[in-house]
Amino acid sequence: CIVVFFFKQKTAYEIYQCDWSSDVCSSDLVHTPINEWKCFVCHNPNSSPKYLLYKDKEYNASLCYGCHTNLKKTIESKSHKHGIVQECLNCHDPHASKYDNLVVAPVARLCVSCHTNLKNVAHPVSGHPVTGASNPMNPKKKFSCVSCHNPHASDNQYMLIAPKASVCEKCHHF
After folding, report:
1. pLDDT by residue (tens digit) across 15-28?
2. What span, in angstroms and rounded, lies between the C-alpha atoms of 61 and 81?
3. DSSP classification of residue 118
């Protein structure tokens, strides 16, 4: 005689019941799996609640690409890839953020945290704003590094969103 026991697996909500910091629970921008209490999309449900391990035992971009398949295809198709593109958590918070696209800091501050040589430089030309002003291509957003540069990958030098000569012309009509 074989006896099989079936145990109901607890949901992420039952385990945590918003035991996270108030930042995650009260943030306006919450990663979809977290918002839907689907923590096990990324985390191993058999690990202890205190140390939720990633499904793949180690974190790397392949975990993110499981859902973000279009981004993976875009990055793979480009000739220039940002050096940290395989380490999503260097720039993105996997749970929640107060910044668009779940980045961990305002874009300009985030970029110069690695690109320190550009911290106090007039970029791209003297007097040109690099942050703060309204983005002419998307007035609902502030102008930042990603107004001209793709943060993941590009076919253009310097990870520009278009060939160098035409980037300026996207906003400035000469």
Report:
1. 454 445 556 666 77
2. 13
3. G
Nearest to 137 by CA among 112, 161, 111, 113: 161
Higher per-residue confidence, 1 vs 129: 129
Q: How far is CA 118 from the centre of its chain?
A: 21
Non-local CB neighbours of 36 within 8 Å, separated by 6+ positions: none
Global pTM value: 0.79
The mean of the pLDDT values for the chain is 79
Q: Is 57 left (phi over 0), alpha (psi -120 to 50) or beta?
A: left
- Specify the DSSP class assigned to residue 169: H
Residue partners of 116: CB distance under 8 A and separation at least 6: none
Please tell me the distance from the alpha carbon of residue 151 to that of residue 148, in angstroms, as a whole number: 9
Instruction: Give the tokens for residue 109.
Output: 């501050």
